[in-house]
Amino acid sequence: MNVENISFTARSNPSQRVIAIGIVFGFLYWASSVVIAILLAVLLAYFLDPVVKVLDRIHVPRALGALLVLLASGTALAAVGYSVADRLESFAEAWPRYSTTLKREAATMNSKLAFIEKQVAEITPSDGGKVPLRVDNSQTLGALLLRGLGSLYSILLVWTFLPFLVFFMLAGKRKIWRATLDLFPESSRMAVRETLDQVGAMLRSYIAGTALVGLILIAANWAFFWTIHLDYAFLTAVVSGLCNLVPYLGAVLSWVPPFVIGLPQWKTAGPFFGVAAVLSAFHLIGANVLMPAIVGRRVHLNALAVTIALLFWGWIWGGAGLLLAIPITATMKVICDHVPTWRRVGRWLGA
């Protein structure tokens, strides 16, 4: 009796790959709060790791150094939050004045749109007496409360577990690093080590550069708003400066805070155009001068890749997706550059 050795080769066909990709992205959407918390923790851990290394060199145990760094970071954030909260309280007391102005402007805009709609309806052919179908989009108070509670739960989940994740990543970095390298065969560990080192350098450079550019934009906005005597100049500068950090879209998003604050003050269109022009100039300087000079070429992505990343991750995760889109895409590029079969993708992302 002849015995034949039969070998099976597991190969995935295109349909199986599409299904696998769909499952991955479905998981990213369904478990968005968990994934966002982990990714934010990774970013913060890479950013704070150099400080922990310095403490480690002066013989401070790594766990204690991680704890000290987290406490110092939390204290700094609390101080900034207290400063902003004091101005927020003052703004909240004056909000009815701005709310009244916004409602009046919205009513004016609605009346103009209704007039245009009426004019268009008069020149549009008759629809034969068909009654338009109206869909009631109103929701019950209970549904709105449940949606709000769900969003609040997601936020609390992220900010509750985030410090613990960062601490464990910092304190156990050596063991995690060795365990990660052990996942790969010995012949590939050198390439994996180089990839992880490059990813870490890229993420630290991006976070530090973005934070520094954000501070510069906030200071520039504050000086500009103070010069034109805009109410709540500092608070508006903080919000507008943070919005200005969003690639491309930030040039428009940064207009919204000063426009809202300036509605009761400005009676003509001139100040609005002036503010839009200055903030757009700040955005161009930040994106094309400051970021390349500070971050350098560690985050080398082309404009199309960045735009697609912002659209995709913003669609999946909303505001958090806009924040994480560039680090995720830049990390993917670094990985593709070190995997021979994916280098074409890496070259396309940086073309």
Q: Can you walk me through this structure?
A:
- The protein is mainly α.
- It is 79% helix and 0% strand.
- The protein has helices at 14-30, 32-57, 62-123, 141-171, 173-182, 189-227, 233-244, 250-253, 256-262, 270-295, 303-317, 319-338, 343-349.
- It has a domain at 14-108 and 154-183.
- The longest helix is centred in the N-terminal third of the chain and has 62 residues, at 62-123.
- It contains 13 helices and no strands.
- It is globular, with a radius of gyration of 26 Å.
- Residues 133-150 have low confidence and may be disordered.
Head-to-tail CA distance between termini = 60 Å
Helix amount? over 70%
Low-confidence stretches: 133-150
The total of beta strands comes to: 0
Sheet-strand content, in percent, reads under 5%
Main beta sheet: none
What does the average pLDDT come to?
78
- Secondary-structure element pattern, one letter each: HHHHHHHHHHHHH
By DSSP (H or I, 4+ residues per run), the number of helices equals 13
Shape: globular
Overall SS class: mainly alpha
Give descriptors for this structure:
13 helices, single chain, mainly alpha, 351 residues
Entry summary:
With 351 residues, the protein is mainly alpha-helical. The chain is 79% helix and 0% strand.
List the SSEs and their pairings.
Blueprint: H1 14-30, H2 32-57, H3 62-123, H4 141-171, H5 173-182, H6 189-227, H7 233-244, H8 250-253, H9 256-262, H10 270-295, H11 303-317, H12 319-338, H13 343-349
